[in-house]
Amino acid sequence: MGCPWVMTRLDLDRICAARPLINPVFLGTPFSMCEPLGERLGCEVGVKLETANPVRSFKGRGTELVVEGLAGASVVCASAGNLGQALAWSGGRRGLGVTVVASRFATPAKLERIRALGARLELVDGDHELARERAAAIAASDGIRLLEDSLDLETCEGAATIGLELVESGIPFDVVLIALGGGAMATGVGQVLKELAPGVEVVCVQPAGAPALTLSWRERRLITTETIETIADGVAGRRPIPEVLADLLVIADDAVLVREESIVAGMRLLFEQAGLIVEPSAALGVAAVLEDPDRFAGRRVATIICGSNVDLTAHRRWVSP
Amino acid sequence: MGCPWVMTRLDLDRICAARPLINPVFLGTPFSMCEPLGERLGCEVGVKLETANPVRSFKGRGTELVVEGLAGASVVCASAGNLGQALAWSGGRRGLGVTVVASRFATPAKLERIRALGARLELVDGDHELARERAAAIAASDGIRLLEDSLDLETCEGAATIGLELVESGIPFDVVLIALGGGAMATGVGQVLKELAPGVEVVCVQPAGAPALTLSWRERRLITTETIETIADGVAGRRPIPEVLADLLVIADDAVLVREESIVAGMRLLFEQAGLIVEPSAALGVAAVLEDPDRFAGRRVATIICGSNVDLTAHRRWVSP
Prior knowledge:
Chains A, B: Its cofactor is pyridoxal 5'-phosphate. Chains A, B: One of its GO terms (biological process) is L-threonine catabolic process. Chains A, B: InterPro entries: Ser/Thr_Dehydratase (IPR050147), TrpB-like_PALP (IPR001926), TrpB-like_PALP_sf (IPR036052). Chains A, B: It comes from Kribbella sandramycini. Two copies of one chain form a homodimer. The first copy, chain A, is of the alpha/beta class. Chain A folds into two domains: 12-54 and 153-319, Rossmann fold (3-Layer(aba) Sandwich), CATH 3.40.50.1100; 60-147, 3-Layer(aba) Sandwich (Rossmann fold). In chain A, 44% of the residues lie in helices and 16% in strands. Chain A contains 14 helices and ten strands. Chain A has helices at 12-18, 35-41, 60-68, 82-93, 108-116, 128-142, 153-168, 184-196, 212-219, 242-251, 260-274, 284-291, 293-296, 312-319, and strands spanning 31-33, 44-49, 74-78, 97-103, 120-124, 145-147, 175-179, 201-207, 254-258, 300-305. Chain A has a six-stranded mixed β-sheet with strand order 1-2-10-7-8-9, sandwiched between helices. A four-stranded parallel β-sheet of chain A has the order 5-4-3-6, with helices on both faces. In chain A, β4 (97-103), α5 and β5 form a beta-alpha-beta unit. In chain A, α4 (82-93) packs parallel to α5 and α11 packs across α12 (284-291). The radius of gyration of chain A is 18 Å and the shape is globular. The termini of chain A are far apart. Chain A binds chain B through residues 24-25, 28-36, 39, 47, 49, 51-54, 56, 113, 116-117, 169-171, 271-272, 275-277, 308-310, 312, and chain B through 24-25, 28-36, 39, 47, 49, 51-54, 56, 113, 116-117, 169-171, 271-272, 275-277, 308-310, 312.
């Protein structure tokens, strides 16, 4: 419990100590202003690109820390696809047995990569919450480590190293837009900014079709939802984790919900103006600006492009004029 | 003339000294293995991504050095589009007057960005060689600095910093595939590898439709060509520069020519397997593997994704199944 004015489970010293344990291939990602995108959005937009690594998402930052703490054991996680790829990559390089549990409705491109990376993949006939239950059951029955995204501090601390890099870039920004799923990225990056750049507004962005954690943040109590209706598979949860909500209440300045058509429009703008193929979750920040341009007008906005594991056929359909 | 066993105009000490003068936004670019791409190519493929910066190509590394040496003056260059953007960006931030001369047949997306970045753009009714002549005439009549790509050492030294990063990555590779246009990237990156990683094979790749420098390298004498027939606008020259050829004769282990259909197939593979939008020049390395898979089978291949300034309509047509 380090910082006296940002009381969460996270600690800046631990985050700084974690960074050297992460394979450099996940670190030092590009952060630069994208003028064409900014012109279209009416603000200055800095893009932090987390997709140019072997698993095409930021999740490797966290899984590197997880496997560092495991000595020759096995590990299981539930995943919408990105955490599973990252754990398969990190675990595979260290000879660990990795099991990933996913919904059979998960993005095929993600499932295919999890298998290709050598993990055991188990599919459940339900959504991500059922996959979480099944992963927990496997961990209990097999006596192996259960990795729980956003609950386990390694996942938050790994994501938090993005925050260190944003601050160290020297590129000034007024507000950061962070995709909100389980909450690891929002609490991790947010914690670092609150401590090292407290003037930066931390805004979480979640699809209106998967609003549980945002609603919980607004109501300051746990709210679960019954259904998920979003293409942003990477942030589609229904049951927030109490510990993560507690941290998010300390960290987030705001949490906004965006419509599906804004996510699609965000993907299209990132494609057309920045030449980037991104998965829907990575377009949430741009979607937030599109929905409330006055709020961001003329400001310096940083957004994290958190993943690019997307079905290309669907992407083509989404971005086509 | 530093290194006694790699006698060129380039010098490792100068390259190392140049690096801190370059805006960090162009440095430390991602380099990681892309397994899905490697599986399709039958070798291990490391991708060095030079597109996640404000000008979406590696050219900023060189233009930063150029403007560092200019004190409040003006500068003119000929450009197929990427050098012009980079010079406009670097010069614009320092309040320099930047003039870019380009062919009126240049990629519209590139010309548009040069204008948007505040440079004066002059179009000539001919190809890149005519633009070079016109830029030289402007420099002479206006008494301003003429930046000549690949001839001026800053452009080679800037590109050479890519080589430093490749070596420093600690990721081993056996061969590097470098797009060959004017020659700055090939001689710059190649020089660093020859000095610091002499076991790495340096292979230059040029379109068969714009073969002048490759033919010159093979014949060990200057060969000019009459016409250009390639979609790879970034490397489309007809008149090699004698000093650059002399360096390339020392540096390159091989120079290969690839067909247009291989360039397109390379763009498609980078799109489908790596999720990358690239311009044709950036696909030359992949094209070289596609044309001679036996040569690269099982080897560790590094390729530099040098730019992503591409017309999206054309890109869609090229990569569509």
